[in-house]
Amino acid sequence: MSMFESYEQQFSSITADITARIGKIPNLTGTDKKTEVGVVQGNLDEAKELVDQMEIEIHDMASEQQPAATKKLKSYRSQLDTLQKEFRKAQIAVGNGIVARRELLGAEETHYSDDQRAQLLDNTETVDRTSRRLDEGKRIARETEEIGLEVIGNLHGQRETLEKSRHRLRETNEDLSKGSRIIRRISKRVVQHRIIIIVAALIILAVMGLIIFGIVKAKQK
Fold it and tell me: What tens digit of pLDDT does each residue of 43-93 get?
């Protein structure tokens, strides 16, 4: 079983427990209601953490598995949002038995309580919208961080490539310098050899000239 599937099972179990507890909250009062609300809130936080862990696992999946997992994750987020809304409504809702007791206190008090409940519901919806915006901001921040790390990694790789190219260029320049020095030495030796050949040729010509001159002079005598 993969980690993603394990998180799915835990999410399914905890959301079932949340649903059952939310149904009890309107019929509770005082300490019992406060305790149940605390348990549900803790379960909702744990469910949200499971969803975040599933999102992280998707990034490590093979590319062909990611679309199906992403679709499931979207469904789980929607389910979690629905449970959060139901939880907020349950906190301000009252059960049938509590309504009956309030009706004994008079219609005016009941009407005032309904107005308070409506105002509280508006406030919780505002908080919900703000929470979603914060979650969206966190998601964008995570994506931006991932992109930044990827860019830094690419830049590091490009830097290493440039360093290697620079090193190779230095080696090439050194080889060219050595080659130039060798060529200059060879050219110098070639010039020297030519001078020696020319001098030797002039000497030979001079000797031959003297020999010919001596032969001609001897015949004349």
Answer: 999 999 999 999 999 998 999 999 999 999 999 999 999 999 999 998 887
* Rounded-to-integer distance, Cα 120 and Cα 89, Å: 9
**What string of H, E and C letters represents the secondary structure of the chain?**
CCHHHHHHHHHHHHHHHHHHHHHHHHHCCHHHHHHHHHHHHHHHHHHHHHHHHHHHHHHCCCCCCHHHHHHHHHHHHHHHHHHHHHHHHHHHCCCHHHHHHHHCCCHHHHHHHHHHHHHHHHHHHHHHHHHHHHHHHHHHHHHHHHHHHHHHHHHHHHHHHHHHHHHHHHHHHHHHHHHHHHHHHHHHHHHHHHHHHHHHHHHHHHHHHHHHHHHHHHHHC
Helix pair angle (3-24, 30-59), 10° resolution: 160
Maximum Cα–Cα distance for the chain, whole Å? Answer: 172
pTM over 0.90: no
201: its two tokens: 């040729």
**Where does 3-104 sit in CATH, by number?**
1.20.58.400
The tokens describing 35, both together, are 């305790």
67, 20 in Cβ contact below 8 A? no
Structural domain boundaries of the chain? 3-104
